[in-house]
Amino acid sequence: MSSPNQPLTRICLFAGATAGVSPAHLAAAISLAHAMHASKLQLIYGGGTSGLMGAVARTLVSLSGPSSVIGVIPTSHIARERTSTPEAAVSTATELLNIPPTWTVRTGTDDSRAKLALEEEYGPVTVVADLQARKKYMMELVRDGGPGSG
User: Is 46:14 a contact under the CB 8 Å cutoff?
Assistant: First the structure.
C-alpha cells in the first residue's frame, strides 16, 4: 500500500485478448481485479478492451476508478479494436460501447505517443508506435511505480 506521498504499486499484466476456452479464465481475471482493488494496486496492461485484459481493466475501473488502470497499445493493435487510427477509435468506441463520445485524443509528444482516454470504462490508454515502444513504455510505467511494482 502506498503512502500519500509515493506512487501506487503497479502491476504489469499481459493476458489474452480473448476470454479463453473455459469460463474459469474469465472468472480468474475478474478475481484478479478484485484482489488488486483490495490491495490498492494500479494495473498497467496492454490497452485492449476485449478478452481477459479488457475484463481485468473494466472490473478494476468499476471498483477503483479510472486512475487505477493505465493501458498501452501499439497502433498495429488498434485495428483489432476495429479501428485503424486513434481518431477512428474515438467514434468506434462510442458506437461499440454505446456511450457518449468521451475519448480524448492528445498528441504532440516527441515520442509519437497519442493518448486516448475512455476513462469511465477502461482507464486512460496510450497509443504507441509499435510493440517495442509498448514494452519500453510499460517498463517505464512500472519502474516509476511505488515499492513492490513489477
Answer: yes
- pLDDT of 77 above 50: yes
The answer to which of 62-66, 94-98, 137-141 has the lowest mean pLDDT is: 94-98
Asked if 101 and 108 touch (Cβ cutoff 8 Å), the reply is no
For the entire predicted model, the pTM comes to: 0.75
Query: What percent helix, strand, coil does the chain show, rounded to 5?
Result: 45, 20, 40
pLDDT digits (tens, 9 = 90+) for 89-136: 545 544 544 433 444 444 444 444 445 546 678 888 887 878 898 899
3-state SS, 48-66, equals CCCHHHHHHHHHHHHHHCH
- The distance in angstroms from the start CA to the end CA of the chain is 14
